[in-house]
Write a sequence for this structure.
């Protein structure tokens, strides 16, 4: 079953892809067919009892300097926590 995975992290353009554990998790999730979204903490919101974020759909690859591609931002609402 493919999931929609929203990742809150530092701006992805500034990370060290050789040592960033969140990036490694994103690569693994993408390889398993999951859809990825990226957002920074300042774009996480709470209103009317719901948590939501403005996030970019993202694809990642292990290529320094060309390690991500964003699509147009979307509103992910509501965000829920899933622990597996």
């Amino acid at each position: 079953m493919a999931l929609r995975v929203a990742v809150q992290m530092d701006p992805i353009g500034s990370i060290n892809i050789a040592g960033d554990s969140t990036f490694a998790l994103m690569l693994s999730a993408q390889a398993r067919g999951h859809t990825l979204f990226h957002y920074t903490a300042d774009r996480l919101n709470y209103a009317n009892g719901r948590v939501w974020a403005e996030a970019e759909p993202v694809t990642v690859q292990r290529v320094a300097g060309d390690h991500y591609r964003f699509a147009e931002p979307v509103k992910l609402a509501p965000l829920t926590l899933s622990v597996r």
About this structure: The longest strand covers residues 50-60. DSSP finds one helix and six strands in the chain. Residues 35 and 65 are 22 Å apart (CA to CA). Residues 21-31 form the longest helix (11 residues).
